[in-house]
Amino acid sequence: MKKIFFLTLCFSLAVSCDSFLKVNFADQPELEDVLSHNKTSRDFLAHLYNYMPLEEDMVGGSGWVVGRSSQALYSWYSLGSYQFYRADSFAATSATESEYDQWDYLYEGIRQATTFILNIDRDVQDNEATRILMKAEARFIRAYCYYALLRQYGPVVILGDGLYDENTVNAEVDRNTLDENVDWIVSELDKASIDLPMSMADCGEGNIDWRGRATKGAALALKARILTMAASPLYNGCEIYKGQMKNIKGKYLFPQAADQTKWERASAACKAVIDLGLYSLCTSEGGDAFKAAAEGYQKVFFENWNDETIWGWWKRTYNNKGKIIYENLGGTGMTIAMEVPEGFGKYSFSGICPSLALVDSYAMYVSGRYPVTGYENDCDGLDYSKPKVDALSGYVADGWTEGYHQPVDADWAPAIKAHNSTIGREPRFYAAVVPNGFYWPNQNLDDARFLVGVRPTSQHCRVGYAWRRNYPAGMILASQSDYSILKAVYPDIRLAEIYLSYAEALNEQPSRDEAAAINYLDKVRCRAGLKPIEIAYPEVAGNKELLRALIQHERKVEFAMEPLSWYDSLRWMTAGEECNAGNWTLKCSADSYEGSYERVKNEFAAPPARFTDRDYLFPIPFSVLTKTVNMTQNYGY
What we know:
Blueprint: H1 28-34, H2 38-48, E1 72-74, H3 103-119, H4 128-153, H5 178-195, H6 216-231, H7 262-274, H8 289-302, E2 309-314, E3 317-318, E4 324-325, H9 333-339, E5 352-354, H10 356-361, E6 372-378, E7 381-389, E8 400-404, E9 416-419, H11 427-432, E10 433-435, E11 465-467, E12 489-494, H12 495-508, H13 514-527, H14 533-536, H15 544-558, H16 563-571, H17 575-578, E13 585-586, E14 599-600, H18 622-625
Antiparallel strand pairs: 1-5, 2-12, 3-4, 6-7, 8-9, 10-11, 13-14
């Protein structure tokens, strides 16, 4: 089936390098030719979808930011460019371009989308209804590019429907305010949602599979995400930006005081998505409730185009020349290779590993409570060897249990001696994490037991826990071709996010609705096999701050190792506390299995993470500032 949104063309509609404001139409007849025919105009539209950041690519993808968070460690720390997003080295320790700067690329997408919107009516070979639909798609893509800029750089320059005004003086260009950014993007999504279909199946395009293209639900869900972000502490009167960053029009880029009614806009936007009635959480039926909960969670990534995915796309990656690969659409080969521990596949490096902080965050199954409430501090920040344990959770941080059987995807595995910290956790833990000493979920291997330190090369897991979120149990990885067999859809926006955003907004808005907030929080917890929050935490009744903390914790687990989780920690302004820590791991060099469960910070040789107030935003690139000399730089750069 033809996935038209991954075609790419090399247009001579070249974007000028002179200014991010300018598009060079040196060959006007070619523009008219391209957008006068239905084949080439549809190819142009397909090309626009390529501007979505590669959030799903763990290696080389500028959109994947989890390595910058407290949830992951990158084992190949000797490769400096891939130690990337640990806070102190992420985007520029000076106001210069970085390997992960997306400014020019996203503005290129914005200009190309505007070109399409202004010129698609030349396509007389398509009927008006089709042109209206394609224009709405381009409007959605343009709004998404602005959203991607906003979350990375803060408020940016809104070009509207303009391409380039010859009378524009670059010295007069500066950024619009945060509220102006949000209002304009939301207005564009509102316009797009009017003309976008509920489903691409409604468009009557024969046998062409158009899944992955924008729909009404996608536009409304992106609107909900943006309004939730705008209501959050970083963007809503935070102390850091008070008296800072005033543009050349004399306006502060960020609101100088919090407006809690913004949560009402966010809750209304979330409810609009829910009221569509089109989406449902992935679940699994079965006699074993624990296994069914794990399988339901796994379906989010393993079942393509499932009913929980509001909008997503086939996974992509880069080739060795830095270009997006469109062959083998959906292939997850590099992602799988970076997760699987060495020795369990032809190419298996366990380069991306869950941090101890992430491992500690999963709830206990019986109590439904999160076991670790925080950590003591040392000279580098948080000390992961000294967790603050919730005594009511049932968590045991030390000691061993003999005769333990893995509860998910390992019925065939013999009983093991398991560390008590790995026992009794919720289903999502075992669906995503393989602890040291457990069996890798593939019974076809000669030796499937995952033991750190037994394969002491530069590529083995350096944390002591392996990540298997994208690995279906039993997948054979004996040859290079095996890595491209699995085709997967990246679920960029899914219903679980909308439920938890709605719960958050209901809890924060002035007309607080605690009962409804708890109800939508429990929908996600129930899918995960956890008890309702009021049973797990009876003290939550009437406690807005505790409910806020529990919603935030649930999002960290539900979206673990997904970019959304990192952007959550930014908008909540919790990254400053979470990211400053030494590189804590298990003692992977230990002489014995029992000795390996000591938590140490002297084996992962990279420097400790450092996060300061300026790190909440990327700097405006130096190349932009040299052209638009009066553009306001971000705080701290």
